[in-house]
Amino acid sequence: MLEKLDTANRSLAETQQQVNYLAFQNSNLLDNLAATQQEVEKLKSINLKFQNRVAIYSQTLNELNFHNFQIKQHNAELKNQLNVQQENLNSKYKKIDALQEKINSLNASVETLQIGRVAFKQVIKSLLRKTKTEKLLTIYKKLVNKSSSNLEENQEIISPKPELDTSSVEEESRVESASVKVNLISDSTEALIVLRGVTFNNELDIQDVSEEPLRFFSEIVSKPSQILCISPDARMASLIQALAYGGAEVFCFACSPNLAISLQTVGVKMIWQDLGSWMVETQQTNLSEFDVVCLGQNPSLVDWALLHNRLSNNTKIITQADVQALNPKDFNLHQSLFKSWEVSNLTFNGLKLYDSPPSNWKDPLDIISPLHQYQQWPWHDPNIRIPSTLPSGKPWPKISVVTVTFNQGKYIEETIRSILQQNYPNLEYILIDACSTDNTHEILGRHKDQFAHCIIEPDKGQSDALNKGFSLATGDILAWLNSDDSYVPDSLFRVALAFDRYVTDMVAGGVQLREDFCPTPFKVHHSKLPFGEVVPLPTEQLLDLDKCWQQGHFFYQPEVFWTRELWERSGGKVREDLFYSMDYELWVRMSVNQAKIVHIPEPLVAYRVHEKQKTYGDDIPFLPELTSVRDQFLSIDR
């Protein structure tokens, strides 16, 4: 019994020890828990401080972004101010140059008065030697009548004194000459001197000059003109020298070095660029400011085609060119260009003279004002007159433009107005919206009656929306315009005229690069394709990303227009698995399908550069996809 009691006491003691041990451990755990709780509180405090620092950092970052945006806006304003100042300086320089040219012109006029006086006397002496007496008086009366509009009270009386055999003729001549005071350097006299230069004949018989050529050249020399000359030969050069010597401002292209030397001595401006490059560099894509166009015997077909649809109705043309000889079958010009060259009923010594250009040479829009007057485009409509047909007589082709958008309410109205306010007579405008949640729907509602189709529904992305739009398009010419870009004035007309002028699948122009809402472009980009010449769209260069595509040798997507036939020949859709490069893939596919393209000098689109566009930034997010597309084409056995 005692043994059991001792055993129980020992067990109780052991249990008590275990209880004490557990109590000790519990105390340690409580201490550890308290310490842990303290650590937790410290971590909470640290986390709170971290969150505060994150908030401060985020706020600072937002402020930096805001200041960066302000700096960009300020830079844009400074650029505009610098541009304005530069334009003012250029304007002053031009005035100085104009004054200097006037001084030079006055000095030249003094010399011309002396030369013209001598030349006129030589003409009269030649007539006295070569004509009969009866014809002399008739011819002389004609010259006097043409010069009578330039009478001045103190001018010298002209009295030719030929040795005539009959006293009656001598008396009639003396009475006629004494009754009229004639300006020796009248327009008719200068025109006669010009004609003598054209014929290489100082003994020009005035009986061979009919009234109309004399009238034609009199109108040219009556005031200083701006003259465009292409490919002059020696005879054309003599004409240009005479006109330049009389005060005309002459721009000469494609001139031989030998002729250039003699032409430069009389102030002719030699342009060593091709005509298209010069038009782009000087922003003179419209040539209606030229009063006269002189064409030598063999102008290049590229320059000849670039003159079409760019001249004023009042531009005079002097040409030696044989139009039939300018018609090679492989140049890809529509035959209507040659058929429309009206036969001139006014000629002189092998020159064809036109008081007004043939129909296909006139600018059908008759726009003379430079584009800078439309900087507020598309908020002010340009005042243009739209002819009912193309200059060739064909109807304006239907152009289908597709715009896809999602939450671009900040820009979309400018895009829409730039298309609708083109006033193009055969437009099909299709807009696809992926259920935008901003103010886009309100803007679309204001223009809903002017869309051919306006689809508002979810889509799988930009490519899916583009395919929806093009599936509805019925136009002869197709294009798409992003909802943050805009067309410049008259773009659709210029594209239609180009397709009417050239046998081509594609037309590309230039693109004005603008920073966000800044109206003034900071750059105008053109591809490296030749101007005014139909060429194959080069596959190998398109696939050369490093040396060509990424170097800007090609075009921006919005400036490209193509035919429905090429679209269908190339598959009739854009790839929906591509996020960035669906346009590049389409161009390569078109080139593989033998697409032909022509590059025109006119800028067609304003491309907006801003932070929210997909391709914005220095990290080039589209490059991996672009490279993958390139590699897929390279792997195809072509």
TrEMBL record:
<keyword id="KW-0808">Transferase</keyword>
<feature type="domain" description="Glycosyltransferase 2-like">
    <location>
        <begin position="400"/>
        <end position="525"/>
    </location>
</feature>
<keyword id="KW-0175">Coiled coil</keyword>
<protein>
    <submittedName>
        <fullName>Glycosyl transferase, family 2</fullName>
    </submittedName>
</protein>
<dbReference type="InterPro" id="IPR001173">
    <property type="entry name" value="Glyco_trans_2-like"/>
</dbReference>
<dbReference type="GO" id="GO:0016740">
    <property type="term" value="F:transferase activity"/>
</dbReference>
<dbReference type="InterPro" id="IPR029044">
    <property type="entry name" value="Nucleotide-diphossugar_trans"/>
</dbReference>
<dbReference type="Pfam" id="PF00535">
    <property type="entry name" value="Glycos_transf_2"/>
</dbReference>
<feature type="coiled-coil region">
    <location>
        <begin position="26"/>
        <end position="116"/>
    </location>
</feature>
